[in-house]
Fold these 4 entries.
Entry 1:
Amino acid sequence: MKTPAEVLEEIIKSRRSVFPKDYSTEPIPQEVLEKIRESAQWAPSHKKTDPGRFKLFQGAEKNELGQVLAELYRAITPPEVFLQKKYQDISNKIDKSYAVFSIVVHFSGKVPEWEELASTAMAVQNMYLMATAYHVGCYWSSPEIIQQIGSYLQLAENEKCLGFFYLGNT
């Protein structure tokens, strides 16, 4: 029987980014999605600010997110560099994902911003590791359009979107 350290080492070494093109259509059980989200809560944060905010998008809400992201790309991209393929790929990536978490950092003002960013990144690493333990493919993407997504996500002035965490069975 493996020790907890051996199991952890195996999970750490097998963690990989798995992209939506490689996801199957099999659903991810809701309890697994909740375990992945809960794992983020265990990331360290200075003064217990818990700066990571993770909203889960599934079903129609996820599809709407894909359309919003694609339209933001169209809106902010000058026509001379706009790529129809990239526009389509944005919503296709979300369509192929079973679920997507938005990754948002909440700056408390109690500690330096870099600490809150680091804590949020550690929370995402926990999510990666938990997804790996459940054999769920995932990856963190930070497209340029996240700079424009704040109003859609209803972010407060002291919050910033750091990207999206795509999930799907492999």
Entry 2:
Amino acid sequence: MAVYKYSSYVKTSTSDAFDTIYEPGSKPAHSGIYRCEGCGKEISHNAGVSLPPQNHHQHTVAQGKVRWRMSVYAETNG
């Protein structure tokens, strides 16, 4: 789970961008922290760069395939 110390550095958002589930190898539009829906592993990732492939880390059968969801958006000002 992503954590922070200074609440003034983060804000709440209702953007639909947080609802998108990305397949391994897809290229998300936003830089930020992405969390695997199956196991909770988190990665930092840059916009427009391919997410790690399916074999990036191992899952049990119960965890299913690797699927990424953005949990923190790195907003740019300018």
Entry 3:
Amino acid sequence: MGYSTRPVLDNYSCREIAKNLCIPPTTVVNWVRQGWLKAKKRCINRYQVKSRDLKQFFNNPPQPIKKRIAAIDPQVVRYLVG
């Protein structure tokens, strides 16, 4: 895909994560609501995910979606979490 080095950011929106993973933003929001991905609520349907929490999620995904997370291009994961 040709990802460049991303400036280091500490926080991500669910939409930004979803865009990079090529999945619907509602999927990421559901991960948050399930308690699988730690996030801080910014307003009604907006969450803020810290990069360390996103990294922990990718390193230790929940069992029900472990195969799905493992199928994500490692280059995309590195781009998001460094």
Entry 4:
Amino acid sequence: MSSHREAPEISKDPVADSSDLYAFVDPEQPRMVTILANYVPLQDPAGGPNFFEFGDDVRYAIHVSNGGDARTDLTFALEFTTHVRNRNTFLYNTGPVDSLDSPNLNRYQTYTLTREAHGRRTVLAKDVPVAPANVGPRSMPAYRDLSRAAIRSLPGGGTVFAGPRADGFYVDLGSVFDLLALRPFQNLHRFRSPAAKSVNTLAGLNVHTIALRLPISSLTRDGSTPREVNDARSVIGVYTSASRRRARLLDDNPAHDRSHGSWQQVSRLGNPLFNEVLVPMVRKDAWNRSDPEHDRNFAQGVLQPEVSALLPVLYPDVFPRLAAYTKPRADLAAILLTGLPSGVVDGLQTFTGTRQADLLRLNVAIRPSAKPSPLGVLGGDLAGFPNGRRPIDDVFTIELRALAGLTIPLVDPAFTPDDAAGLVTDQLETPTFKSSFPYLATPHDGYSAHTAAAS
């Protein structure tokens, strides 16, 4: 998974689990950047009466690095508050909900959004309503209108949304975790079993999304809107995090529980699959609690990735050239830890300096593609991953092909990838996404999910 349950401790704390991060030049408004940060993964839409929500005791944040040193320069932080209108009912809603302030919406959330830069904290929005859970057609008869009402304008021309969305990440988890049963050559696996049709395991599940659409000029180091791809100011690095107070005191009455101390980061995410695949299990929780600027401590997993060593073992004679390649994976280090310098890929650079850091890097001077390819840069589409990430990008296939050796020639032209490196995929169709902000699809409703499962 991109970052769903990717570490032992955060798998026990889903409300603080950073599950996916997207950053792309907005196709509706190309002078803007849209950043989507997902949390609370693997939500069953019918999971009531206590439907999924953000945590009141969690600080959610989107961090931006624009100074060329991989350190955080801007932070957009959100803190949530839960409200209950009728304390004498167990119901989430006591009747049909037709507006965000409907008296029938018994349990609802609001949030405050702040911008932090150079030690200065500015409140951008306060008491903003969160889109509620999509309970079902009787409870939320016009849910799309309800969720659209949660999209709010920000000072300076920005836009914000917080609430549930359909999970946009697509991958066949059952196949991946069954000793890397990969397509299209499952029949060549060392441990043979009948081939099965590819399944998008996350189809039908929801997440909670924080969506920001911000002017490019508000994210660059000098307030400019760069037009030249090779301009160092055109590249920003993004990561998302979730933090908790260092101590929590429990009372006999849960309403009197209190959290104390400074904020401690417990989850983060830059590039998809980084902690999931490249960090050893015993270090995953430490990675979640560290800042990207210290990622040189985890670089070994990038330079010598375990998956690249496993592929030739699990698929005898399929990856002979990969098996013989013993050099450190400088291609992966460039893509994931420093960004690609000019000259490696024609028309693209995502370099943020020599400091190694897991950041989702975006060149804001590259305009949105008229015909996006799910394979991003590997598919000839420079507006896609690893130049930022869009919901359409098939990051599992892209990263798997890179791990299989397809990107080694970027830094080592003498290497010829195995034919299989350009074929490996989970063979999933690209899901349908919204064509407008916040781009991820309307969350699945509990009633329809229940009836679909029963049919």
